[in-house]
Amino acid sequence: MSPKYVGFGEAISLFFSNYVNFKGRSTRSEYWYATLFTCLVSFVVGLISGFIGNDILVYIVSLATFLPGLAISFRRLHDTGRSAWWLLLCLIPLVGAIIVIVFECQPSGPENKWGAPASAAEEAPSQPTDAQ
């Protein structure tokens, strides 16, 4: 399935419905809205855990968002025409993560082995008209 440009709510829905979908592509809007959601939820849960003095909520949220976060990173790199193996750059302290973030900020690439870009996927197929 080709990606499409989405709003915040739809991005969150896609984030969890594609929980372990490591194939295909994700647009920048889908990726960054999902990242924003994850950061906001983690911040709020961190505050709550700090007030109650128990980190179990932080562990639960981390476990619940780890696989979908990894999957959407795979799909975002696919959208830029890169293999998900580029995520291994994150193992290089600081510099690796910066390089991956730059990759994830880049616009969608042309059609590749992971599918068509969103702009091509959203175009309505032309219907032949009957000329009489």
Written overview of the protein:
The protein is mostly helical and 132 residues long. The chain has one domain (8-111). The chain has helices at 8-17, 28-52, 56-79, 95-105, 118-122. The radius of gyration is 18 Å and the shape is globular.
Percent helix range = 55-70%
Radius of gyration: 18 Å
Q: Class by helix and strand content?
A: mainly alpha
Tally of domains? 1
Low-confidence stretches: 120-129
Instruction: Report the end-to-end length measured between terminal Cα atoms.
Output: 37 Å
**Major β-sheet, in short?**
none
Average pLDDT figure: 87
| Total number of beta strands | 0
Helix segment tally: 5
N-to-C order of helices and strands:
HHHHH
Query: What is the 3D form?
Result: globular
Q: What fraction of residues sit in β-strands? A: under 5%
